[in-house]
């Protein structure tokens, strides 16, 4: 009895404890709900700032259930937890970066690289104290780098390369003690690299007290790339442990720097700095330069004499070598001793000389200092430019560093230039020239620019009214005629590396132009790209370019043409996560003639059934699983030309039908 009375006072205490625990759980749930609600709001603000989403990657971003953890590209700490990762790389998103992303307080990873984002980097990103990876590379971002990014205490990677960022590098980045990789290359940054010119780098991270400015206090910085900007002055000694290539393509005046920009480009690119990269010029300086020591004058004269001797010797040697059979001997620059590292390759020098060669400087001017990026891939960056004489051009620049560029790459590049230069057809993008320079290292190709975008853009996120049935037929036949030329009229035949609706550009009058911008992928395998290893099999005639391989590539083009025709008919993507592969969906309708009408894009009007029947018969043959049963483009083009009427009478007939439909509707 006494035991019961002793236990009685414990009951209220236990109740209080349970009540406190329950309140704590409710509080945590409310906090989690509040956090998720804030994350959803921030992400929806990001979605509203996107004005174009061609691949519909944000289509499932809705606030119906108030939970963002199942959205594409979003990763949470728990099923209902906070957002810790946002990955939307290579999504072709076009728009701004919403400042509201700074409210994702638990975010650890932000990958928005390889999109079409423009505007400035929001300073609110600097409030993400848990952020470890920040990648905004290969976009169209402009403006300065916010100094507020110095508050990213946890960040280990910052990658802003291949944008149009301007202004100075903020010294606040030196506060980032965990920063391991910093890529600011291929922008329009000016000024000097913030850091001490007296400190030195120590592998243990111990920097002298004089080096406590700018980037010098970053003890873990192992990768830093500042190349291809307009940076001036001298490279801080504390950063000279980085490769020299990390500073090339700037305006440095430093014995450590190599491959810097020409003085004219530096002056034009560094507006706002009096006297260009040399700083202000005062009359006193000019007076001091006139008073040179006698020994210096003698040295200058001797140097001039030696230079003249060398020039004369070079001219004599060149004149003698010109009498020999023209050949180019290319040796590997990586000094490896394998059999393929030293080859003698005979190239028709006259053919090379006959091709139009453009300088990097004139292309840099045409492309507005390479800031007008219209496309990119891991292998290339595509710029739009306007030449001095008026025509608009597309400039394809290979993403290669001189240290990784071997003789095999050079051989492939030169062979490809010669191969592309022989193409001459109305439906093939015209090759206008090439750029091959070593200071700074550049390998580029120049083509005519088709100002009306790609077929992919018109079919999948353009205005459907612009691409009528008649225009689609014109494009389909034009592509077929271009492929017929490449496959059957050229010797040796030519195959497009990756034929799809993105490799078909259209002009203002909707004439299709085939391009082969993806041919450079074969130069590198995916895991070897960073090391610069070359796929040597594809570099030489006879290796990876046999008749069997060429025939397989041509058959692959035929299949791809069938897929493009299905896109033209249906307006559907070749592959969609929700709907699967277009070919699989279309096959069930292609097998029954009465069902082919279900393939047609519902937004289309004035569809001619006879044209549709011809297209579907061609598609069925092109996508045959057995490559040997696919007809040649000679046959396919003949079927399309004979079966689809694009004459003026047909156009007038279609126009009359359209007016009749309009009259009935009224």
Automatic annotation (TrEMBL):
<keyword id="KW-0812">Transmembrane</keyword>
<dbReference type="InterPro" id="IPR011009">
    <property type="entry name" value="Kinase-like_dom_sf"/>
</dbReference>
<keyword id="KW-1133">Transmembrane helix</keyword>
<keyword id="KW-0067">ATP-binding</keyword>
<feature type="transmembrane region" description="Helical">
    <location>
        <begin position="295"/>
        <end position="319"/>
    </location>
</feature>
<keyword id="KW-0547">Nucleotide-binding</keyword>
<keyword id="KW-0675">Receptor</keyword>
<protein>
    <recommendedName>
        <fullName>Protein kinase domain-containing protein</fullName>
    </recommendedName>
</protein>
<dbReference type="InterPro" id="IPR000719">
    <property type="entry name" value="Prot_kinase_dom"/>
</dbReference>
<dbReference type="Pfam" id="PF07714">
    <property type="entry name" value="PK_Tyr_Ser-Thr"/>
</dbReference>
<keyword id="KW-0677">Repeat</keyword>
<dbReference type="InterPro" id="IPR032675">
    <property type="entry name" value="LRR_dom_sf"/>
</dbReference>
<keyword id="KW-0732">Signal</keyword>
<dbReference type="InterPro" id="IPR001245">
    <property type="entry name" value="Ser-Thr/Tyr_kinase_cat_dom"/>
</dbReference>
<feature type="signal peptide">
    <location>
        <begin position="1"/>
        <end position="20"/>
    </location>
</feature>
<dbReference type="Pfam" id="PF08263">
    <property type="entry name" value="LRRNT_2"/>
</dbReference>
<keyword id="KW-0325">Glycoprotein</keyword>
<dbReference type="Pfam" id="PF00560">
    <property type="entry name" value="LRR_1"/>
</dbReference>
<keyword id="KW-0433">Leucine-rich repeat</keyword>
<keyword id="KW-0472">Membrane</keyword>
<feature type="domain" description="Protein kinase">
    <location>
        <begin position="368"/>
        <end position="644"/>
    </location>
</feature>
<dbReference type="InterPro" id="IPR001611">
    <property type="entry name" value="Leu-rich_rpt"/>
</dbReference>
<dbReference type="InterPro" id="IPR013210">
    <property type="entry name" value="LRR_N_plant-typ"/>
</dbReference>
<dbReference type="GO" id="GO:0005524">
    <property type="term" value="F:ATP binding"/>
</dbReference>
<dbReference type="GO" id="GO:0012505">
    <property type="term" value="C:endomembrane system"/>
</dbReference>
């Amino acid at each position: 009895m006494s035991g019961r009375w002793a236990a009685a006072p414990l009951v209220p205490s236990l109740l209080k404890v349970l009540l406190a625990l329950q309140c704590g759980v409710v509080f945590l749930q409310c906090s989690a709900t509040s956090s998720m609600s804030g994350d959803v709001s921030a992400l929806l603000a990001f979605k509203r700032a996107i004005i174009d989403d061609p691949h519909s990657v944000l289509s499932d971003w809705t606030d119906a259930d108030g939970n963002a953890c199942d959205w594409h590209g979003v990763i949470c700490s728990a099923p209902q937890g906070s957002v810790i990762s946002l990955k939307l790389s290579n999504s072709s998103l076009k728009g701004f970066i919403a400042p509201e992303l700074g409210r994702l307080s638990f975010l650890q990873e932000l990958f928005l690289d390889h999109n079409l984002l423009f505007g400035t980097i929001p300073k609110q990103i600097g409030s993400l104290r848990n952020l470890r990876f920040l990648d905004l590379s290969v976009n169209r971002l402009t403006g300065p780098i916010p100094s507020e990014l110095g508050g990213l205490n946890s960040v280990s990677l910052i990658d802003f390369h291949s944008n149009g960022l301007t202004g100075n590098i903020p010294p606040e980045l030196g506060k980032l003690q965990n920063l391991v990789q910093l890529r600011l290359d291929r922008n329009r940054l000016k000024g000097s690299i913030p850091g001490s010119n007296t400190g030195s780098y120590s592998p243990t991270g111990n920097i002298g007290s004089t080096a406590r400015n700018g980037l010098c206090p970053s003890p873990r910085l192992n990768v830093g790339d500042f190349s291809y900007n307009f940076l001036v002055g001298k490279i801080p000694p504390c950063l000279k442990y980085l490769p020299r290539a990390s500073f090339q393509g700037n305006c440095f005046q430093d014995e450590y720097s190599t491959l810097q920009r020409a003085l004219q480009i530096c002056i034009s690119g560094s507006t706002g700095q009096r006297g260009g990269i040399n700083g202000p010029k005062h009359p006193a300086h000019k007076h001091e330069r006139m008073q040179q020591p006698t020994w210096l004058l003698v040295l200058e004269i001797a140097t001039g004499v030696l230079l003249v001797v060398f020039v004369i010797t070079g001219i004599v040697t060149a004149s003698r070598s010109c009498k020999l059979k023209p050949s180019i001997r290319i040796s590997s620059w990586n000094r490896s001793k394998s059999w393929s590292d030293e080859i003698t390759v005979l190239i028709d020098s006259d053919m090379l000389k006959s091709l139009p060669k453009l300088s990097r400087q004139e292309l840099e001017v045409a492309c507005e200092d390479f800031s007008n990026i219209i496309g990119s891939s891991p292998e290339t960056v595509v710029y739009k430019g306007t030449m001095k004489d008026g025509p608009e051009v597309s400039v394809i620049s290979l993403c290669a560093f001189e240290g990784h560029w071997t003789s095999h790459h050079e051989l492939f590049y030169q062979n490809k230039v010669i191969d592309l230069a022989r193409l001459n057809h109305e439906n093939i993008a015209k090759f206008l020239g090439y750029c091959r320079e070593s200071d700074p290292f550049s390998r580029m190709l120049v083509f005519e620019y088709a100002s009306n975008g790609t077929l992919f853009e018109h079919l999948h996120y353009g205005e459907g009214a612009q691409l009528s049935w008649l225009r689609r037929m014109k494009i389909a036949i034009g592509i077929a005629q271009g492929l017929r030329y490449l496959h059957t009229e050229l010797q040796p035949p030519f195959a497009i590396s990756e034929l799809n609706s993105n490799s078909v550009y259209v002009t203002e009058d909707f004439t299709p132009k085939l391009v082969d911008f993806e041919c450079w992928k074969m130069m590198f395998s995916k895991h070897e790209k960073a090391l610069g290893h070359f796929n040597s099999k594809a570099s030489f005639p006879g290796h990876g370019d046999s008749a069997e391989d060429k025939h397989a590539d041509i058959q692959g083009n035929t299949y791809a043409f069938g897929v493009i025709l299905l896109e033209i008919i249906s307006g559907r993507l070749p592959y969609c996560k929700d709907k699967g592969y277009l070919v699989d969906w279309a096959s069930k309708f292609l097998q029954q003639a009465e069902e082919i009408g279900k393939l047609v894009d519902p937004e289309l009007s004035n569809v001619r059934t006879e044209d549709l029947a011809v297209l579907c018969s061609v598609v069925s043959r092109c996508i045959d699983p057995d490559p040997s049963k696919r007809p040649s483009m000679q046959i396919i083009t003949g079927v399309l030309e004979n079966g689809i009427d694009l004459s003026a009478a047909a156009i007038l007939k279609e126009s009359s039908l359209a007016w009749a439909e309009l009259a009935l509707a009224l």
